[in-house]
Amino acid sequence: MKSFEVNFDGLVGPTHNYGGLSFGNVASQSNSQQASNPKEAALQGLEKMKALMDMGFVQGVLAPQERPDVAALRSLGFAGTDAQVIERAAKEAMPLLVASCSASSMWVANAATVSPSADTADGRVHFTAANLNCKYHRSIEHPTTSRVLGAMFADQQHFSHHAALPAVAQFGDEGAANHTRFCRDYGEAGVEFFVFGRSAFDSRYPAPQKYPARQTLEASQAVARLHGLSEEGVVFAQQNPAVIDQGVFHNDVIAVGNGELLFHHQDAFLNTEQMLAELHGKLAARGANFQSISVPRDQVTVEDAVRSYLFNSQLLSRADGSMLLIVPQECRANSRVWQYLQGLTAAGGPIREVKVFDLKQSMQNGGGPACLRLRVALNETELAAVNPGVIMTPGLYDTLTAWVNKHYRDALRESDLADPQLLLECRTALDELTQILKLGAVYPFQIN
User: Where does the record locate the signal sequence feature (predicted)?
Assistant: First the structure.
């Protein structure tokens, strides 16, 4: 039976803004308070989805969150009508209003961790929504994320959904941004690679000193247990604390993997040789020929990697067995990174081609091509069981483009978030979107 890796890209929400909310994310903080362009951001994301679809990849779309999150503001003591809640929050606690308007759910690499049926004990595809409890503006996402994923992957014969882990620091979970799967074929048993920044309970593991380590070992272990993964099918590795302190807030900012290949910076991990040996051995036992490409620090520095998002790229397998690397245009603008990539593709290794995309609106807020997608490996039967409304087609692309042009503003500043009309615009847009994507009632305003 044929199997696919399906990329479900996050649709950028109508309140896309530069709130500078993510401590440890250099791009997010450096562009704080600039005017954003939600319409341009959403259209850039849709163009990337269409391009991958046109190249023959199965592409899906994942709906954004309802923002502003009025319910979250009410839980913090703001009362009255929806308009009064927004007005009072803007007057008394603007940072909370900004947080409640964050469109960071567009980066669906943080939405959940996904294990395909070939790896799990019960032979179903497992989803665990990420609690994202390191940052308030993201910690409020997982209830809606769970409902949206449940509407997309509803067939319980094929799909199993788990609630987010306990929302405490010891179980900080950032989803697929710290999770990669290696395999010979998407339909065969593979090895799932969990990367953590610190241990909550074991002091033997060093921790960063400047920025927070968002993923704990204990959270990764819990997800592996929930998904029914075998010991032979998992590897846990620690991210280098020194690179976290340089702005590498997730593993997908310093490494990307696909199929039998890990593409990573020389300084990405601790105990790198031991980790690579474990991956090689466990994948060999499953018939895979694991390879790694380590980018030397004397060719590309960690600072270069963070500024260009070289590793926050999509590594895609093509029909001829070669791999395609999807990178943001910031990689071409960095001379050292671009020189490295030119040499990489000329070397005749597994990565044969690099394609560049303009994702400036997302990049300025700290997310590149890999942040915008959640990878789900599915066989033909499972793909047929996915809600067809969320699978990209030429018709859906045209419909979503028209929807964005109809509903989105082309400029948004912090002061605009206090406009009660913005909430009405967003709800009108999202109500229409759920009909387009055939999701049913997934947003609080549709349910309550």
Answer: none
